[in-house]
Write a structure and sequence with these properties.
By secondary structure, the protein is mainly α. It is built from 21 helices and no strands. It has one domain: Up-down Bundle (Amino acid/polyamine transporter I). It is globular, with a radius of gyration of 22 Å. The two termini are about 25 Å apart. Keywords: Membrane, Transmembrane, Transmembrane helix.
Length: about 525
C-alpha cells in the first residue's frame, strides 16, 4: 500500500524531545529504584550517576551515526554498512528482542497500577493472574491506534500526553518528600551495605531505564531536520537522568520500614514489596499531601507506561522495517501505508507477538525478570554502534564527527559489555539462546552469508560475555570473584574485541550490497539534497 513517496518528515524538535523523554521515563521510574536499592542500598544513587555517564557515551555514538544514516530503525542498520549482513542480522535481532519485551513490560506496569483498584489482576507474589494476562493482551492491541494514523498524529498525541505525564510523575515525588523524609535511611544502615559490588549489580536496572533514548534515532527518517536528533538525544539523556535521580532519592528517603512491615535496614527484604513500589509507599501516608501523591501516582502508574508502550511499539515497527530493508524479513514489512506512510505490517506483527508474550509470560516471571532479559538483548545490540562508528570513519563516509569520538567510542563499548555482564546468570544465556535461535533461522532461510568473516569478532564477543557470566561469582559456577570478573570483562572487551571489531570492519564503503535508506530510489533525500 505504499505510494512510493516514502515516510513523511513531520516530527519537530519539541515533539522529538517529548517522544524521547516519554519513552525513556516510564516503568523504570517506579520499579528500578526498588530493585537497585534492594541490592545496593543508598549506593543506588551512585549507580544512577554512573549510568548517566555510561549512556551519554552510548548516545553520542547514536548522534554521529544518525547524522550519516538518518533512517527508520537506524541503530538496527548501522552495522550493515560497517560489517555487512551477518553482523547486522545478529545486531538487528538483538535490538528486536529488546523492543519485543518492552511493550509487554509496560503493559505489566499498567496492570501493577490497575491492581490497586482491581486487586484481582495480580497474585500474592506480584505475578499477573489470568485476568491480568488478559488485560495485558488488550493493552497490546490498544497501542495500535496511537501509531496507525501517521507520524504527525502520533507526535501530536505524544507531545500533549507526554507533557501531562511528566507533571503527574514529578509532582508526587516532591509531595512524598514533604510528607515523610527519613534521613537515617541514607546513613544509619550503611550507605554501601553490599559494597561496590552492590552498585555494579544494580546497574542493569539503571541502564534499562536509559535505553529508551534509542527510540529517537529510530524515528530519524520522519524528523523534519536530522540535526534535531542531536539536541533531542542530549536533552533526553540529561533530562531522564535528573528525573531518575529524583525518584531514587525519594524512594530511599520516603521508605517507612515499619509501615511496610520490614526490618529497618534490611535492604534485601524490599523484594517482599508487591506492586508498584511508589504506589505502595504513598498508600502508607494518610495525610492530604500523601493522598494527592497517591492519586497522581495511580494515574501516572496506569497512563505513563501505556504511553511508553505505544511509543516503543512504533519504534519496534521501524526496527522490523529496517530489517526488511536489510533483506532479513519479507518484503511486506517494507510496505508503507498509502495514506499514513507508516510500516503497518510491522506494527500489526508487533502487536500480535507482544500480546502472545504478555499472555504466555504473565504467570512465569515478575516484571523484573523481563527487564533483565530485555537489558541483555538491548546492550548486546548497542555494542555494535561504537565499533561501527569508528569503521565508518575509516571508510571516510562520516558526515558529522563528534569531537573526542575516538575516546568516547571505547568507553561506550566497555559500558555495553559491563551492562550485559552485570545482568548476570541466567538472564545472559537466556537472551543469547533466544537471539541465536532467531538469528540462525532467519540466516538459514534468507541465506545470509555476506560479511560472515567480518562478523567473527561479534560472535566471539557475545560468547565471551556469556562465558564470563557463567564463571563469575553470580553465575552457574561462581569460580571468579565478582570484581575480578568485572575487571576481566572490561580488559578483554577493550584489548581484544573492540580493536578486532574495527579491524574486521569492511575495508571500503559497502556500495555493492546495501543501499542507504535515504537514496532517491527509496523515496527520500537527505537535507543536502541526496547523497
Amino acid at each position: 500500500m505504499s505510494d512510493g513517496k516514502g515516510m513523511k518528515k513531520e516530527i519537530g524538535l519539541t515533539s522529538l524531545i517529548i517522544i524521547g523523554l516519554a519513552s525513556a521515563v516510564a516503568t523504570a521510574i517506579f520499579f528500578s529504584p526498588l530493585q537497585m536499592t534492594e541490592v545496593a542500598g543508598p549506593g543506588s544513587l551512585i549507580a544512577w550517576i554512573i549510568a548517566i555517564l555510561f549512556y551519554v557515551t552510548i548516545s553520542i555514538t547514536y548522534i554521529e551515526l544518525s547524522q550519516t544514516y538518518a533512517e527508520a530503525g537506524g541503530p538496527s542498520r548501522y552495522s550493515i554498512y560497517s560489517h555487512g549482513a551477518v553482523t547486522n542480522l545478529i545486531n538487528a535481532m538483538a535490538d528486536l528482542l529488546w523492543y519485543l519485551f518492552i511493550p509487554p513490560i509496560e503493559a505489566f506496569a499498567t496492570i501493577e497500577g490497575l491492581d490497586y483498584i482491581f486487586p484481582s489482576l495480580l497474585d500474592s507474589q506480584g505475578f499477573p493472574t489470568l485476568e491480568g494476562a488478559i488485560v495485558g493482551v488488550i493493552l497490546m492491541f490498544a497501542y495500535i491506534p496511537f501509531n496507525y494514523y501517521g507520524v504527525k498524529t502520533f507526535s501530536r498525541i505524544t507531545s500533549g500526553f507526554g507533557t501531562v505525564k511528566y507533571i503527574i510523575y514529578i509532582l508526587p515525588a516532591f509531595l512524598l518528600l514533604l510528607v515523610f523524609f527519613n534521613v537515617k535511611n541514607f546513613t544509619a544502615y550503611g550507605f554501601l551495605p553490599f559494597g561496590v559490588a552492590g552498585i555494579f549489580s544494580s546497574m542493569p536496572y539503571a541502564m534499562f531505564a536509559f535505553g529508551g533514548a534509542r527510540v529517537i534515532p529510530d524515528f530519524a527518517e520522519e524528523v523534519k531536520k536530522k540535526t534535531y536528533l542531536i539536541y533531542a538525544l542530549i536533552i533526553t539523556v540529561i533530562g531522564e537522568g535528573l528525573v531518575y535521580l529524583l525518584f531514587d532519592f525519594t524512594f530511599i528517603a520516603n521508605l517507612d520500614w515499619t509501615k511496610l512491615g520490614l526490618t529497618p535496614g534490611n535492604w534485601a527484604s524490599l523484594n517482599k514489596v508487591v506492586g508498584n513500589p511508589f504506589i505502595v509507599l504513598a498508600s502508607t501516608h494518610h495525610s492530604g499531601l500523601g493522598q494527592i501523591a497517591l492519586l497522581l501516582l495511580l494515574i501516572g502508574g496506569i497512563v505513563g507506561p501505556f504511553l511508553t508502550g505505544y511509543v516503543y511499539m512504533g519504534g519496534g515497527a521501524r526496527v522490523l522495517f529496517a530489517s526488511a530493508r536489510s533483506g532479513f524479513l519479507h518484503e511486506k514489512f517494507k510496505a508503507l501505508h498509502s495514506k499514513y506512510a507508516i510500516p503497518y505490517w510491522g506494527l500489526i506483527l508487533f502487536a500480535i507477538v507482544g500480546a502472545v508474550i504478555a499472555f504466555l509470560f504473565a504467570p512465569v516471571p515478575s516484571i523484573y525478570g523481563l527487564i533483565d532479559d530485555a537489558t541483555v538483548a538491548g546492550y548486546i545490540g548497542f555494542a555494535t554502534n561504537p565499533v561501527a562508528m569508528m569503521v565508518l570513519r575509516m571508510q571516510g563516509v562520516t558526515k558529522w564527527k563528534i569531537k573526542g569520538g575516538s575516546i568516547i567510542s571505547p568507553i561506550a563499548f566497555a559500558a555495553s559489555s559491563l551492562i550485559v555482564f552485570w545482568s548476570g546468570w541466567p538472564a545472559v544465556p537466556y537472551s543469547v539462546i533466544i537471539l541465536a535461535i532467531i538469528t540462525a533461522i532467519l540466516g538459514i532461510v534468507g541465506k545470509v552469508t555476506e560479511g560472515l568473516k567480518e562478523s567473527t569478532w561479534y560472535i566471539g564477543y557475545i560468547a565471551f560475555l556469556t562465558f564470563m557470566t557463567y564463571i563469575g561469582s553470580d553465575g552457574a559456577l561462581s569460580l571468579v570473584p565478582y570484581l575480578t570478573a568485572t575487571l576481566i570483562t572490561v580488559i578483554v572487551s577493550l584489548v581484544l574485541f573492540y580493536p578486532l571489531g574495527i579491524y574486521q570492519g569492511l575495508r571500503e564503503r559497502n556500495y555493492l550490497y546495501h543501499k542507504e535508506a535515504s537514496a532517491p530510489e527509496e523515496g527520500l533525500e537527505s537535507e543536502e539534497g541526496g547523497r
